[in-house]
Amino acid sequence: MQQELLGTSGPYDTLRPAGGAALGADAVLAGLDPEQRAVATALHGPVCVLAGAGTGKTRAITHRIAYGVRSGVYQPQQVLAVTFTARAAGEMRGRLRQLGAEGVQARTFHAAALRQLQYFWPRAIGGEVPRLLERKVQLVAEAAGRSGLRVQRTELRDLTGEIEWAKVTQIVPDDYPAAVVKTGREAPRDPAEIARVYATYEQAKRDRGVIDFEDVLLLTAAILEDRPEIAERVRAQYRHLTVDEYQDVSPLQQRLLDQWTAGGASLCVVGDASQTIYSFTGATPDYLLNFRNRHPEATVVKLVRDYRSTPQVVHLANGLLAQAGGQAARHRLELVSQREAGPEPVYVEYPDEPTEAEATAHAVEKLLAQGVRASEIAVLFRTNGQSEVYEQALADLGISYQLKGAERFFERPEVRDAVMLLRGAARAGADPLTADAPDLAGQVRAVLASRGFTPVPPAGSGTVRERWESLAALVRLAEEFEAARRGAGEPCDLAAYVTELDARAAAQHAPAVEGVTLASLHAAKGLEWDAVFLAGLSEGTLPIIYAKTDEQIEEERRLLYVGVTRARVHLTLSWALARSPGGRASRKPTRFLDGLRPGSGAPGGRSRGGRGGVEYGAERPAARRSRGPVKCRVCDRTLTDAVERKLRRCEDCPSSMDEALYERLRDWRARQAKKQGAPAYVVFTDATLMAIAEDVPTSTGELARIAGVGAMKLDKYGAAVLSLCAGEVPEDESEGDQQGEITGGDSGESDEPA
């Protein structure tokens, strides 16, 4: 019943790969490189896998789980793999199914916690679980109003993000202002106001009897902390845990993970500190970087063989990290490409952003003509506000595209609102807002000023900045439209501009089956393409202008590293000297390319990072009995049958058993059983005695490594067994007693199957 309620399924002996045939344990290891194989065979934690970009980390950890199941070390219903997105969890489940490991749970942190919360809430709290609030923006808006704040619709996402950050870093409303100061966080508005909205939001949830996604983690952790009997049930259910993207865990997620593993569960974590790009959401690489400090006995495996990118792309990626600083940089991995050589990365400087976008679109067109599929091409940029010019450039060439990680430009709320205002001003004709404007661009600025647009970008980050970028793009578009119309001698007014906007919006809504991907660098994490264009790589954009501290600058560098490592073969990096045509060429290419792009001087930083390999914990007990997969000592096949595992050989492989010793052991066991008034198998099973007689131990350590000889039996019977193995009479038996028992008795043949 517990298996059903906690979401497990399927007994071990029903596991089958997709084709239906049984999959042997050793077959799971086929095709893995040495480091991936080390991950797959390190079945008992703690294990830390430091996996560089493109090194096959998902392959390694899914094969590890499948190997554990197929070798009989894991029961699938006792395995839980957690990751950060439903897409990643689904991919993991699919791979495990193909490897014959059905029944393993692969979920996001929130999904796993919610399942436990729903099951245990009635007995821990009573009643039904509060309704889950799918989207908190509306309730945040209500909380802001009740707090006496006037908040624009586009600011709500920033307020919501701040509340989420506070909750995952376990900061209560009263402590939020101090936390902002302590962490150097740049709040989107006055911290005291945000704290007030945060407190009101929490009260509004209580009033309505609802919880949000962060509450799911908080409440589950609290129940496990406060109710030991519930915690024990969960820990008994999941004995083997794997955490993917461990560099992105938050303090709240780590708190829950600590509860899951407190009962001694085997833990395997996988991550890459060089891909930490979500610290603004509360994620921290500290748990990954300090894993060896918390678990001195841990096995650490480094994956550095890059199967995704060409040597040319990998060389640039390594060069970026070689110049990095901070703790994450000290643990960087130096990738080694496993692919054939490809073209060198292309570095291009343009006079302005429209020219950069048009040239990028033509480069995409050229790749398409060469046979590269549109879905294998991506244009990546720092902020969503940069997308519009690339959307238009691709549309002008009839190239379909898809915008990932954000709404299409003309579907964004601020853009829809702006177009509606502009349409209203065009219909009104003599509008007071536009009366003093000298030209079309001035009229657009005047209209958008009523929605908070200013000529100078805001200092903050997040939605406020992206909203400004969207409105600024409309102003720039007005400037270009006006210049083109006047050059052609055509009318140029607000009405004509709105008509142009409508036409562009309609063109972008065409279906895109094979579309080029347009995405922010954050949205590109976890994806890859044959060809990648990294656009807008200028100072002030990357690193972003509001990145002030050394830590913030280093995260911006890691963001570029993530972008570079998305490319398999073709990589183009570009920047513009000015925003608009004819503008002052005051921009500089990003500092992160200094020493790497041609003509930028000698590269800085160290040239070596971490290498691949396996490191075993310094405090791992030398005599600790291995509980991993058991190999046949004759043919080296992985053993799955219980008796074969005890004997450490296949049933059909030749036996090396000492028959005389085996008989002495059986006689001794019969005497011990008679003394205790218990069945013979209580002392040792036949299979254990056969294992002892086949692999005769000469020391306590060797005896302890034989399956069936636990700590208690080793203490109770170890000396006697070793004496028998040495051909001696155990000290606790006299020769007369031994002879009498031999001649008078039953040898206890009713042994229990192993």
Outline of this structure?
The protein is α/β, with parallel strands linked by helices. It has 30 helices and 19 strands. The strands form 5 sheets. Strands 3-2-6-7-1-8-17 form a 7-stranded mixed β-sheet, sandwiched between helices. A 6-stranded parallel β-sheet has the order 11-16-15-12-14-13, sandwiched between helices. A two-stranded parallel ribbon has the order 4-5.
Please specify the SSE layout and strand pairing.
Blueprint: H1 2-5, H2 25-29, H3 34-41, E1 47-51, H4 57-70, E2 79-83, H5 86-98, E3 105-108, H6 109-124, E4 131-132, H7 137-146, H8 156-168, H9 176-183, H10 191-208, E5 210-211, H11 213-226, H12 228-237, E6 240-243, H13 251-261, E7 266-271, H14 286-289, H15 291-294, E8 299-303, E9 305-306, H16 311-322, H17 327-330, E10 336-337, E11 346-352, H18 353-369, E12 377-381, H19 387-396, E13 401-404, H20 413-428, H21 440-449, H22 463-488, H23 494-508, E14 516-520, E15 529-534, H24 550-564, E16 567-578, E17 613-615, E18 630-631, E19 638-639, H25 642-647, H26 659-676, H27 686-694, H28 700-704, H29 711-725, H30 735-744
Parallel strand pairs: 1-7, 1-8, 2-3, 2-6, 4-5, 6-7, 9-10, 11-16, 12-14, 12-15, 13-14, 15-16
Antiparallel strand pairs: 8-17, 18-19
Helix pairs in contact: 3-4, 6-11, 7-10, 11-12, 11-13, 16-24, 18-19, 20-23, 21-22, 26-27
Biased composition (Gly residues): 601-615
Region (Disordered): 583-622, 728-754
Protein name: DNA 3'-5' helicase
